[in-house]
Amino acid sequence: MTNKEIARPLKETAALIELTGGNPFRARALDNAARIIERLETAVPELISTGELANIKGIGAGLVAQIEEILAYGSFELRDDILGGLPPGLLDVLSVKGLGAKKARTLWQSLGIQSLDDLEAAALAGRIAELDGFAEKSQQTILENIGSIRSYQGKRRIADAWVDALRLKALLQAHPAVKQAIFAGEISRLMEVVETISIVVISDLGRAVDICQHLNLNFEISSGPDKIRATASLSDGLLVEIIFVEEAKAGRVLFEAIGPKSFVDSFGLEDGAPHFRSEAEIFNSKKVPYLAPELRDLPSAFDRAETLSKLSLLEYAELHGIIHNHSTYSDGAHSLREMSLAVRNGGFGYFGICDHSQSLKIASGMSIATVHKQKAEVGRLNTEFASDGGAPFRVFFGVESDILTDGRLDYPDDVLAAFDFIVASVHIGFKMSEKEATERIIKAISNPYTTVLGHPTGRLILKREGYPINHQAVLEACAYYGVAVELNANPYRLDLDWRWIETATALGVLVSINPDAHSVDQLDLMKWGALVARKGGLTASQCLNALTAPQFDAFLQAKRKASGIA
Fold first, then answer.
1. Average pLDDT score over the chain
2. Does the global pTM surpass 0.70?
3. Average pLDDT in the 159-179 region?
4. Residue 272 has pLDDT above 70, yes or no
5. Where in the chain is the domain with CATH 3.20.20.140?
6. In this predicted structure, what is the pLDDT of residue 279?
7. How confident is the model at residue 101 (pLDDT cuts 50, 70, 90)?
8. Which helix (H) or strand (E) holds 25?
């Protein structure tokens, strides 16, 4: 289990204690422990094995015992005891955005709401708006958020699905009857949302049932002329599909399992056609260059295969710097020095600090005095790094400036001028029409101090839809003003959506892959940005932080000169 997965039942139990009117100190302790565990750089099992976990402030021996239960069983006694006395649907009610434990308790006690169905019925009947602490607007928001939850059931973000996908693939490959296990479907094509973990297994079909039993899932098995398909669901409804095929017939089965259907159909393979041992044989039979699975979702991928196959897709190793990161100067978990050293030790040539600007109070945005304090520390760090005999490394002084509701950046010009670069992002005022959002963002892009447009739609995958924007108009503005666009690498965002990467690069807009890291461990999110960028056909020459440190510095100087602020 990941640290985040371990923290989840602790956090849920804290909410359950509050929901049931239990000991508030215990609830606070569990919630605090969950936050600590989420931020730990070292895996919890390793800390338990060395005895270090119990010594961490806010944990202690009692919580270690409960965490050990979670590792063994996925839950722990206190959580199970509370859940045992509650209607099972109350956890789903707690998951509705905007309903904390106190409000869920009010709804349960006042209206008998025990499930999403109960909650939806009460909202549709107007009963929630009649309660103290609620209103017509909050009632409507509840209905909207219920709709979001239902549309997301049985789906996972790519990074979350990847954990189980790797585990299942490893179990399959460990079975002596399995010659090869190959990812197919959404996982193989690096889709940002996964509904099915699909794996093609090359083996003797007669061993399919035995292999399925090895996975300890309740599979339903169906047989076809050339393959056997086994399906099961994980606890959250995510579908697992294992397709068994013999090696002599594996090519077509794998090709069709990878998809997407529109790409497969373009090949016009007929029923009863000769068997293929590999995908490569299928491409060769149609005289079509082989196309990597992640590119097959692009529009007209079949017709453009000749061009797309020649792309030298971005490799993670081609990224030279990591920009758009946070520290304890705003809402980060680690200091500026710790974050800088982690990037340097990772083999990168530069680090961009982008703490939040002053208006974002909830994220401890930096006052003007704090800006100057941070700039001085950046200077000291660069002096230290230049003189310590290590590999060349530079810290660039940036900020994630809020785009205010009227499109202005969140500091006066004399403060903006102090930064090496600026990532401009929307964090408040999401209730906008497409016209309002587009105009607001384009105004920010036109600001001469803006270097990168941050997470352009503000979406949180499977949590919150982004605000609507006219992507074409926004990207054209980026091209006109020489502003790069961010592909935020956090799996909750992956924003710019990969579907717009070709539009951006065709206009000459550089794409900046940024982790938006708030801790040292989140720097690793860069890999998801690099993978999804490949899906959009991005090459190193089209990526801002594939520039070396001197090249990045030259880009910034040229941008300032072109904007008339050099």
1. 92
2. yes
3. 94
4. no
5. 319-562
6. 95
7. confident
8. helix 24-39
Query: How is the beta sheet containing 484-488 ordered, strand by strand?
Result: 321-325, 350-356, 394-402, 421-425, 452-453, 484-488, 511-514
Two tokens, residue 106: 């009010």
Which residue matches tokens 């000769």? Answer: 274
The torsion angles phi and psi of 227, rounded to 5 degrees, stand at -155, 165
Q: Which of 442, 443, 440, 396 lies closest to 422 in space, CA to CA?
A: 396
Q: Which fold has domain 319-562?
A: TIM Barrel (3.20.20)
Out of 3.30.70.260, 3.90.226.10, 3.30.460.10, 3.20.20.70, the CATH code matching 156-302 is 3.30.460.10
Residue 87 corresponds to which tokens in the numbers above? 């209607």
Q: Which CATH architecture has domain 3-152?
A: Orthogonal Bundle (1.10)
Q: Per-residue pLDDT for 71 more than 70?
A: yes
- What pLDDT band is residue 97 in, cutting at 50, 70 and 90? confident
Q: What pLDDT, on the 0 to 100 scale, is given for residue 115?
A: 84
Strand 321-325, strand 193-194: pairing: unpaired
Q: Are 81 and 108 in contact (CB under 8 A)?
A: no
Distance of CA 256 to the CA centre of its chain: 27
CA-CA distances (angstroms) from residue 151 to 8, 94, 461, 498?
A: 21, 17, 12, 21
Non-local (6+) Cβ contacts of 161 within 8 A are 186, 187, 194, 197, 238
Q: Residue 232's beta-bridge partner residues?
A: 240
Residue 435: pLDDT band (50, 70, 90) is very high
Which letter, b or e, does each residue of 10-22 get, where b requires 16 or more Cβ atoms within 10 Å of its Cβ?
A: bbbbbbbbbbeee
pLDDT of 271 strictly over 80: no
Please list the residue range(s) of the chain that carry CATH number 1.10.150.110.
3-152
Q: Which helix (H) or strand (E) holds 350?
A: strand 350-356
For 58-72, b/e burial (b = at least 16 CB within 10 A) is: ebeeebbebbebbee
- CATH 3.30.460.10 region(s) of the chain? 156-302
Residue 236's φ and ψ, nearest 5 degrees, are -95, 10
For 18-47, the pLDDT digits (tens) are 888 889 999 999 999 999 998 888 889 999
